[in-house]
Automatic annotation (TrEMBL):
<dbReference type="Pfam" id="PF03721">
    <property type="entry name" value="UDPG_MGDP_dh_N"/>
</dbReference>
<dbReference type="GO" id="GO:0003979">
    <property type="term" value="F:UDP-glucose 6-dehydrogenase activity"/>
</dbReference>
<dbReference type="Pfam" id="PF00984">
    <property type="entry name" value="UDPG_MGDP_dh"/>
</dbReference>
<feature type="binding site">
    <location>
        <position position="89"/>
    </location>
    <ligand>
        <name>NAD(+)</name>
    </ligand>
</feature>
<dbReference type="InterPro" id="IPR008927">
    <property type="entry name" value="6-PGluconate_DH-like_C_sf"/>
</dbReference>
<dbReference type="GO" id="GO:0051287">
    <property type="term" value="F:NAD binding"/>
</dbReference>
<dbReference type="InterPro" id="IPR036220">
    <property type="entry name" value="UDP-Glc/GDP-Man_DH_C_sf"/>
</dbReference>
<comment type="similarity">
    <text>Belongs to the UDP-glucose/GDP-mannose dehydrogenase family.</text>
</comment>
<dbReference type="InterPro" id="IPR028357">
    <property type="entry name" value="UDPglc_DH_bac"/>
</dbReference>
<keyword id="KW-0560">Oxidoreductase</keyword>
<dbReference type="InterPro" id="IPR014027">
    <property type="entry name" value="UDP-Glc/GDP-Man_DH_C"/>
</dbReference>
<feature type="binding site">
    <location>
        <position position="124"/>
    </location>
    <ligand>
        <name>NAD(+)</name>
    </ligand>
</feature>
<feature type="binding site">
    <location>
        <position position="280"/>
    </location>
    <ligand>
        <name>substrate</name>
    </ligand>
</feature>
<feature type="binding site">
    <location>
        <position position="286"/>
    </location>
    <ligand>
        <name>NAD(+)</name>
    </ligand>
</feature>
<feature type="binding site">
    <location>
        <position position="158"/>
    </location>
    <ligand>
        <name>NAD(+)</name>
    </ligand>
</feature>
<dbReference type="GO" id="GO:0006065">
    <property type="term" value="P:UDP-glucuronate biosynthetic process"/>
</dbReference>
<feature type="binding site">
    <location>
        <position position="350"/>
    </location>
    <ligand>
        <name>NAD(+)</name>
    </ligand>
</feature>
Amino acid sequence: MAKDMQIAVVGSGYVGLVAAVCFAEMGHDVICVDNDERKVAALQGGDTLIHEDHLPELLNRYRNTKVRFMTDLAEATRESQAIFIAVGTPQSETGDADLSYVEAVACEIARSINSYKVIVEKSTVPVYTNEWIRKVMERNGVARDLFDVVSNPEFLREGSAVSDFLHPDRIVVGSDTARAAAVLAEVYAPLTTGAYYTNANLIPGVCSVAAPPVLLNTSTKSAEIIKHASNAFLALKISFINAVSNLCEATDANVEQVARGMGLDSRIGPKFLRPGIGYGGSCFPKDVAAFRSVAEQLGIDFSLLTEVEKINESQKKRFLSKVRSALWTLRGKRIGVLGLAFKGETDDIRESPAIDLVEMLLAEGCSVAAYDPAAIKRTEEIMPASTTLRYASSSYDAAQDADALLILTDWQEFATLDLTEMHKALRYPIVIDGRNLYDPSVMLQHGFTYLSVGRPAAHPIHNLRRQPVTS
Ligand SMILES: NC(=O)c1ccc[n+]([C@@H]2O[C@H](COP(=O)([O-])OP(=O)(O)OC[C@H]3O[C@@H](n4cnc5c(N)ncnc54)[C@H](O)[C@@H]3O)[C@@H](O)[C@H]2O)c1
Ligand SMILES: O=c1ccn([C@@H]2O[C@H](COP(=O)(O)OP(=O)(O)O[C@H]3O[C@H](CO)[C@@H](O)[C@H](O)[C@H]3O)[C@@H](O)[C@H]2O)c(=O)[nH]1
């Protein structure tokens, strides 16, 4: 039964598309619906539209067979047992999650429902959303025994989305009825029983050695809160280490040593203790704001989250001050920038701190040559090239004749630059690294002035003159 369950996924953005092809990989038949006709046509033709490891391979394996893409939600509703809603829940002006896309989908399901369905919140939504979906269904005349609403939050990260989906730490199912919980248990059975991991056709590097994930059954409200609380806690961890990194800079201590010393305590753990230029992306900024807003509406003081946001904002300004401290004045300076995406291995630029920094540099009168392995096309759409902004063809092209090179995204390829080439390309050998990709002593050996986050700066003598390369 689990092998041939018919599932609908509504929304074929990041989460919807990854969920659709991964459900197919788990053995299910999937209809993936989007109201963007252009997107549906591209997906039918095999274009994923996003840069994500393993996604093209899975899309091509299953498109138009086990995964059908369409715009017709009514048909998808009628044919499926479980309908996963994975549409956007962007931040509204007040900080709340804008749930209008979720509501529109619920209304459309209500119009076409013909037998018992489990409606699954896969989008990140605030507590009580399941009750609102229920109300929308009932207001549209759907009998209460024709549906259940379940919360099944998604924890995948961009850049490792397929691997995260097929090999999650936990699968949270918030359901208030045993009937709906049983349907979700069946959907995820290939993972939770471990059966999927014995498949001979596993994608190399994704799931070869896997302990089956824990299936955690909770109430719907608890599941909704688990998602917001998890993202807010991870954001808090990042802001905490960023604040600690500032303290390290003020005392000439080294945040990497401090983070390692903290992370070895198993109660703290080593992950999400990388300092940088602040968190970004389509999730943390909006989800922290939405969680804060939920607390406010419930009359609960959660000003800790306001502090998390404040530290995150100030981290970008602090990085700009670091650039100023290395270059004295900024007007007219030529800056090479490595990285536009909000993190490495993705072309997503939503709420990217790198883009914010490029905007700040341009506002200061700098000219910028920026390079990113995958995100230039998307960036050009919101920030076209101009007399002061050029998109470079490589890291070395971005560095050519620049007064300083900034590393703003943690792409793996930026951690393995040819430092001798880079030194030759730059007008002054100054690297300001917002992601701590290099060992300061190695940069010093190569003759760079090297500033990073929360670690003592490396300054060769006569650091503002071009230095001979020593390696
Ligand atoms: N991006 C992530 O890494 C991630 C991870 C976990 C959870 N989430 C959550 O998942 C949700 C989706 O995020 P995303 O990044 O995939 O969003 P996205 O913007 O990439 O995709 C949303 C898709 O929904 C489609 N859509 C909107 N209204 C529709 C409708 N009425 N019918 C059919 N399709 C419709 C849009 O055309 C779009 O393709 C959000 O709530 C987000 O917070 C995202
Ligand atoms: O130690 C760290 C870890 C991350 N970041 C930054 O934090 C942001 C978010 O990174 P990450 O969490 O890896 O990426 P996302 O794809 O945004 O994933 C987060 O948001 C998703 C959407 O809700 C959740 O599903 C994931 O579990 C959650 O990790 C990025 O700007 C990173 O550069 C740091 O600065 N330091």
